[in-house]
Design goal:
The complex is a heterodimer of chains A (about 270) and B (about 120). Chain A has about 270 residues and is an alpha/beta fold. Chain A is built from nine helices and five strands, in the order H-H-H-H-E-H-E-H-E-H-E-H-E-H. The chains are: A alpha/beta (about 270), B alpha/beta (about 120). Chains A and B meet through helix 1, helix 2 and helix 3 of A and helix 1 of B.
């Protein structure tokens, strides 16, 4: 099999092309959105409690930047709600901050991310939002569930690699070199947790993102999965649009990881 | 035509620079107003694009200083701003700016917008 770069996200062809820079920046925005969103939510809760003694300026700046970037990078609804939140924050100084409205705006901002992601602008590419034929291994023993996930992956432009047993997953991963692995925890024979541990112990596969999809919903189960090196954890029944968003985020994050082929602009972008 | 662009967000700065370059401008970028004031004398730009909200020194303060200096007051200033309400635009114009481009801007048409403002 011909070795392939698992991170061949839309590669910039022309370092002077603004559209390439926008695609690159969009990947960065996508990868950073969950932590950005968490940060906004956390600061907002502090500001709602402490008012002007909270991190208002920092929150406003984060929201302001989110709005500007989101609008430019194909997330118009995120931008609108971020702007709304920014304007509501003006109320902190006037002493008429409406925390309920701010929380609603924040909820809308988070929801808008998923909606905007499903409707990318034309400059994203001829097959926007698609998986770019990247390989997603689906380790799931239930045939129906495996097929549903594979159908959704194909519809999103990915190449699903179905695997029905844990003891086959490791060898299949070595041969197929998937870009991401969806892993059920309850598998006959070798269970998903063991598979995850073995994958993360293999230098050739350690950087491949692993997303658990399992009925094991307890905090302990999730902690075990994440401690073993899984990159994300979804409890069944899995919402397919959410799964697709999480896959995109993990792939974008991996593409931005140090040591990965950098996108255009990374060496031109000054430090913040 | 040479533009001096002050924008603190690296991705916005990069995309704006490439877009303006594609439109035929020569672009020098800086990260805040203070840096712009340091460079404007040596770069001698034909026009200045200023982000409104920047750390250290924001666009308004920067514009005020540019217009107060006889050596730089003739240089056209355009604001890049998320706040394009009438009062804010009026404030920018009162400071001597020739106009505002709303953020988020249409990155692929930024050059045309700048040219249109410079032509007025």
């Amino acid at each position: 099999m011909t070795p392939r770069d698992p991170n061949d996200v839309p590669a910039p062809l022309d370092p002077d092309n603004p559209e390439s820079a926008m695609r690159d920046a969009r990947q960065r925005f996508l990868a950073a959105f969950p932590s950005r969103s968490d940060s906004i939510g956390l600061m907002l809760s502090v500001v709602a409690t402490m008012g002007s003694r909270g991190p208002v300026a920092q929150l406003r700046q984060t929201v302001h930047r989110t709005s500007g970037l989101a609008g430019m990078l194909g997330f118009p609804t995120v931008s609108v709600h971020a702007r709304e939140l920014e304007e509501l924050l003006d109320g902190v100084e006037r002493d008429d901050f409406d925390a309920s409205r701010a929380n609603l705006a924040f909820d809308a901002l988070e929801q808008a991310f998923t909606d905007d992601l499903a409707h990318p602008p034309k400059w994203v590419g001829p097959d926007p939002g698609a998986g770019g034929n990247r390989r997603i291994m689906v380790v799931e023993d239930d045939e129906d569930q495996r097929e549903v996930v594979c159908i959704n992956l194909r519809a999103a432009g990915y190449l699903p690699v179905p695997v029905h047993a844990g003891d086959m997953a490791l060898e299949a991963a070595r041969q197929q070199k998937p870009d991401l692995i969806l892993l059920d925890a309850n598998l006959p024979g070798v269970d998903g947790y063991t598979v995850c541990r073995l994958l993360k112990a293999d230098p050739a596969l350690a950087s491949t993102p692993v997303l658990f999809m399992t009925v094991r919903a307890s905090l302990d189960d999730r902690l075990v999965g994440l401690t073993l090196g899984a990159d994300d954890y979804l409890v069944k029944p899995v919402d397919m649009p959410e799964l697709m968003v999480r896959i995109q985020i993990l792939l974008a994050r991996r593409a931005q990881a140090p040591g990965r082929s950098p996108g255009m602009g990374s060496d031109e972008t000054p430090a913040r | 035509m040479k533009l001096l662009l002050a924008e603190d967000e690296p991705d916005v700065q990069l995309i704006a620079r490439l877009s303006l370059k594609k439109a035929g401008f020569t672009v020098v970028t800086v990260g805040n107003g203070r840096e712009l004031l340091d460079r404007v004398g040596t770069e001698r730009p034909d026009a200045i694009l200023l982000d409104w909200m920047m750390p250290d020194m924001d666009g308004f303060e920067t514009c005020k200083r540019l217009k107060a200096d006889p050596a730089t007051q003739h240089i056209p200033v355009i604001f890049l701003t998320a706040r394009v309400q009438e009062t804010e635009v009026a404030r920018a114009l009162a400071l001597g700016a020739i106009g505002c481009i709303g953020k988020p801007f249409d990155a692929l048409n930024l050059g045309k917008q700048v040219m249109a403002l410079l032509a007025t």
